[in-house]
Design goal:
The protein has 236 residues and is mostly beta strands. The protein has a domain of 121 residues: Methylamine Dehydrogenase, Chain H, CATH 2.130.10.10. The protein is 0% helix and 58% strand. It has a 4-stranded antiparallel sheet with strand order 4-5-6-7, with no helix packed on it. A 4-stranded antiparallel sheet has the order 8-9-10-11, with no helix packed on it. Strands 12-13-14-15 form a 4-stranded antiparallel sheet, with no helix packed on it. It starts with 5 loop residues before the first strand and ends with a strand. The C terminus is likely disordered.
């Protein structure tokens, strides 16, 4: 399928009168040919995500908007007012919901193009469960003193997508930078953290539910696995 071999890359900054616009370019990985150019944001594009069917691309920007694109037609189909810079976004597995993270966390109804709910929380990492019913968000809370990163603490919050209600709050040591549900059951949640004098670490789970860490830098962070029903944690 063509969309599986497509990657979006923000590569150009083009002056235009008094403003500057960020241009997003999509390339075919196999042929290295340019497929589309998307132009519409007025600030840096911080996050991109394809819909599950590969037909729609979502982009989040420091211009406080999230945009949806029919990338094959190079057409913007929807612009969402995120009310603050949008530095994280992701589609639900069924493609019906979009989560955007800025100063607050917002859930959108993709089909209606409407804000479903706004949650009083920010997030460094966001991910939907495989059944699209739960959203996990990871964030930095604080150290012993506000702004103290020497002993950082973080939290992973679980939200009901339909109601916006917080289901749980899992405390972790370190700044949460990555979260991933096991597939296809969603029973295990992997959390990648940066602790004291640790470098960032990102994690994912493969089809067997095994942790696939990607350590950045020469110092390892930590990975924690949560068995959600029992709230049992295992540190790796």
């Amino acid at each position: 399928m063509l969309t599986r071999s497509v990657i979006p890359v923000s590569i150009e900054l083009r002056p235009e009168s008094a403003a500057t616009k960020r241009r997003l370019t999509l390339w075919d990985v196999a042929t290295r040919k340019k497929l589309a150019t998307l132009d519409g944001h007025t600030a840096v594009v911080e996050s991109v995500a394809f819909s599950p069917d590969g037909k729609t691309l979502a982009t989040g920007s420091y211009d406080s908007t999230a945009k949806l694109w029919d990338w094959a037609k190079e057409k913007e189909t929807l612009s969402l007012d995120n009310e603050s810079h949008c530095f994280r976004l992701t589609f639900s597995p069924d493609g019906k919901s979009l989560a955007t993270a800025g100063d607050k966390l917002t859930l959108w109804d993709v089909e209606k193009g409407e804000r479903r709910t706004t949650l009083e929380a920010s997030a460094n990492a966001i991910v939907f469960s495989p059944d699209a019913k739960t959203l996990a968000t990871g964030m930095y809370v604080s150290g012993p003193r506000t702004g103290d990163f020497t002993e950082p603490t973080g939290a992973v919050m679980l939200w009901d997508v339909a109601t916006g209600k917080q289901l749980d709050n899992l405390k972790v040591e370190g700044v949460v930078l990555s979260v991933a549900f096991s597939a296809p059951d969603g029973k295990i949640l992997a959390v990648g953290c940066r602790g004291k004098e640790k470098q960032p670490i990102s994690v994912s789970l493969n089809e067997k539910g095994e942790v696939v860490p990607e350590v950045q830098g020469d110092r390892e962070g930590s990975v924690r696995l949560w068995e959600l029903k029992r709230k049992k944690v295992e540190k790796r």
